[in-house]
Amino acid sequence: MTDANEVDVLIIGAGVFAAKCYLDLQPESRLVILDRDSCVGGTWNSRPEFNLTFVCEMIGRGYDSFWTQWTVGTAEFSDQAMPRPPDEDIYLEFFKAKHTTKYIESYVDTHSYNGRTLCDRIQFSIEVQSVLKSGHEWTVSAKERTSGVQHSFKTPKLIVASGLTSIPNMPSLPGRENFQGQVLHHNDFGSSNVLISPDIQTITILGAGKSSADMAYEAVKAGKKVNWILKATDTTGPGFFLSPKGVGPYKNAFEIGMTRVAATFTPSFMNGINWWTKLLHSTRYGVKLMSSFWGTVDADARKDANFGRENQHGFEKLSPHSPIFWQNCTGGLLNHKDFFDTISENVQIYSGDVQGLENSLLRQKSGEKIPSDAILCGTGWIPSLQFFTEEQCREFGLPHLVAEEPESEKAHWAELEAEADRKTLATFPQLKNPPEHYHKTPVHTPYRLYRHIAPLSESSATAEDRSIVFLGQVSVGNYFPTVECQSLWAMAYLDGKLTLPSKEEQEKGVALFTAWCRRRYLSNGEEGNNMTFELIGYMDMLLQDMGLNSHRKGWFKDLFAPMWAKDLGGLRGEFEKKHGYKKAGKKGEVL
């Protein structure tokens, strides 16, 4: 590799579908993907023994009993179905995540363009350090994570697909250097020896979300003594864990969530403002009906957990602090029938703040000392955009420090968001009065990307100006269809084939989403990228921008049938025809 690598398209992160989308229409393009991991798959990369195609230099994230939060037929790309896992690896159509890993590995190996597979175009263990633009060209500086060798790439088109779960957020643990056991993030749990080591008998888990819950359950099943510490102050509280069971014709809760009719049960501009959404969310009757519906979902979830059961281990501390409708905490669907019974009977749960570590103990600020042979941190992730400067983040519309935002810009957005907030409350009156809750004061501004993909720009911007996009910077329940639609939109944008509204209208759209997101998702909405229940509306919005509708199935199925990956299968052909693409070579084939 030379010091200056010139390519037509550079992708930062695990953007394999974005690469596929681009190469489908321009197969001779010089396209390179830079991945900081040593295995393909991002969040779903594997432990070495599961990875049959790639040799991992560093540890992967997957572990034997890691399950997906999505179901067979929904967690794949539209052009290649995932083989159905064996029955023992399926529960209500949810499946063990190692099959997603194998699917992605197969995907990059079997898509070939101009004699090179997608896998051939990935450079693993490459850490991007800086991104600079000069004229119409981007220069990306990076280094190899293992050797430290420096590299430089030049490209006219840059796709940032580094996602939201790339860099672990490790808590400050004073005294860690004196701790005799292991301290691991969930990122490293899968390939660690904590569950099989005879030297590790007592495990302490930090965090209140699904990753912490999974680690607690697995540790109990491995025969370990388990402590689970929930933060007591400055917290939105423990996560909401829901039964995955379906009702009626739906096999599971995820299928229900992948229907348009279910999407309309949440107040969102993305669902459109029509007679039905007005009835549900803007009338006294509809608001009462929706309040009753969400109250029933909340009550059923708490009943399933039975937080009031007689228990000596602090199980009641897992009861969420706010109603499920508001999503002010993390959450997820359960993959084990016996989860709550296993936790209540075997896990000692604490609510307190950690002061530090010493020898083989974790010390709480209350003075309580908890014996621990290993500390497992389910403490989330930090932004994966560290290679951009604060000034670049402000320029592109990425989160940047509120304290460093110019006063004129701060006032500009405050005015836009105030008007947007008035519109939000006028349209969705049930958002006026949230329950009492912890609300974190934001340190960073929200995302301000148009359609959550592109920097705000004049509608008449040239193709050279449209040279950077951001994929996967939204919090959704299923990234596969999201990234598929985002990739098509991004390609149309980068190639100057997408007509945009004026910059003023773009800003109003961003401000409206920001104001709505804060009202709808409280603390979790401050980042301006939360779409927990808005996946289908968001996809429809992107496809409508491009004039595409082949994914629609007729009014009845559109409303009541789940959206499957295969439903997006006609988009590429429709996209080519709609936007005047002509094939310059042989299409990529699934080999």
From TrEMBL:
Q: Which UniProt keywords apply?
A: FAD, Flavoprotein, Monooxygenase, Oxidoreductase
MF terms in GO: monooxygenase activity
Protein name per the record:
FAD-dependent monooxygenase
* Organism whose genome encodes this protein: Lachnellula subtilissima
